[in-house]
Amino acid sequence: MGSMVRRGVLAATFAGLAMLAPVAAQAAPALNSAPVAASEAGTLETRTFTGQGSAGGSPKRALRQAMDYALQSAAVAGYLESQCVTTYSRTYSHGAGYFSANVVISCTR
Fold first, then answer.
1. Is the pLDDT of residue 41 over 70?
2. Which of 3, 63, 91, 103: CA 20 to 30 A from 19?
3. What is the mean pLDDT of residues 62-85?
4. Residue 66 pLDDT exceeds 70
């Protein structure tokens, strides 16, 4: 029983060290390396934004309004429209020609 516990502790220790190895390799840059932009270093920032809209007459109008609100939130956070993709969109009919919509976009820079 005691040897199984020691093996488990030893395995957990090695697993922890293996997870630290890539961090240590990134922490020490080469002596004569040029500065690297954040996107080239692999550190990308991704955020999601939501928008809700409602409109009479057409589900497309409600969807466009929801998309505009989501993109406006992304712009306030410093993202460009070209950095965003739609990950979810749905329209709802409430009868009598009235629609609402939800949109989720994911932006990466």
1. no
2. 3
3. 98
4. yes
Question: Which position has the higher pLDDT, 28 or 91?
Answer: 91
Q: Are 53 and 65 in contact (CB under 8 A)?
A: yes
The C-alpha atoms of residue 31 and residue 25 are separated, in whole angstroms, by: 13
CA distances to 4, 11, 70 from 15, in Å? 16, 6, 41
Sheet with strand 46-56: strands edge to edge = 46-56, 98-108, 84-93
d(CA 58, CA 106): 25
Which DSSP string do the residues of 45-103 spell out, in sequence order? Answer: -EEEEEEEEEEES-HHHHHHHHHHHHHHHHHHTT--GGGEEEEEEEEEE-STTEEEEEE
Cα(14)–Cα(63) distance, integer angstroms: 51
Would the pLDDT of 49 be above 50? yes
- 70 exposure class (CB count in 10 Å sphere: 0-12, 13-18, 19+): buried
* 34 DSSP 8-state letter: P
